[in-house]
Amino acid sequence: MAILPHALTPRTPPAPGTTPLRVVAHGARSVRGLRRMRNEDAVLLASPLLAVADGVGGHAGGDDASALTVAALRRAVPDGAVRDPEDALLDALDEANAAVRAAARSRRVEGMASTVVAALLTAEGVTVAHAGDSRAYLWHDGRLERLTDDHSLVAVLEAREQITEDEARRHPLRSSILRAIGLDDELRADVDTVPVAPGDVLVLCTDGISDQLTDAEIADVLASTTDPDEACDVLVALARETGGDDTTVVVAQLG
């Protein structure tokens, strides 16, 4: 078993125009944390479109921001039949950003925002778009590959080798997000399309998982079971042993 950082190891993509892979089994969990009265995470399960969103911790209206975000994704990509999946996801996130900004203005709420990661299965592979520190992983051939780079202060410090990965997970500013839906008038989201193969497993999660578990711990769980439901249960249970935030994860087996 190996843990691979982004970017992915080269794989031969499917031929253009071939039938896209589909989700053959999935599990999803979203559990309210111990620190707030409401679960501020949201999940979208509309195969071939999957997403998780996380209302930015400590900001008013976080639960509404995450709900508006997944609703915008669902409207913009109603059935996955889009000509350009990268443009479709970016347009959807722009729509979500505008919706959250408008809601914040109408309610006179400062800092209403949400992180998001969305994955769309196409004939070319899986297209992943994200803003913030919600993550996407791909389990392929016994290896875990992180598909996203966190838009956070600690991620910048870690990239500059000013702190270690372990220090980043315990840093007092680990919740400082540099990009998110609703933070700015103009959203800067990242998008990429990577090849996938039958048997691959896609994982989407909020920081309630990734702040508490290392990539190696996530990989150990995926190596121990082929049942997405069981993987979700174990990941949530492990994360909640040491964390108190909302905990959300989607595990989808592709075929």
Structural key phrases:
7 helices, 255 residues, single chain, Phosphatase 2c, domain 1, alpha+beta, five-stranded antiparallel β-sheet, 11 strands, six-stranded mixed β-sheet
Task: Give a written overview of the molecule.
With 255 residues, the protein is an alpha+beta fold. It has one domain: 4-Layer Sandwich (Phosphatase 2c, domain 1). 31% of the residues lie in helices and 27% in strands. It is built from 7 helices and 11 strands. The chain has helices spanning 62-76, 85-107, 153-159, 165-170, 207-210, 215-224, 228-242; strands spanning 2-4, 23-31, 41-46, 49-55, 114-122, 125-131, 135-140, 143-146, 190-194, 201-205, 247-254. Strands 1-8-7-10-11-2 form a 6-stranded mixed β-sheet. α1 runs antiparallel to α2 and α6 (215-224) runs antiparallel to α7 (228-242).
Widest β-sheet, arrangement of strands:
1-8-7-10-11-2
Give the CATH topology: Phosphatase 2c, domain 1
Mean pLDDT score: 87
Which structural class is indicated by helix and strand composition? alpha+beta
Number of domains: 1
- Helix proportion range: 25-40%
Number of strands: 11
Give a short summary of the structure.
The chain has 255 residues and is of the alpha+beta class. It has helices spanning 62-76, 85-107, 153-159, 165-170, 207-210, 215-224, 228-242, and strands spanning 2-4, 23-31, 41-46, 49-55, 114-122, 125-131, 135-140, 143-146, 190-194, 201-205, 247-254.
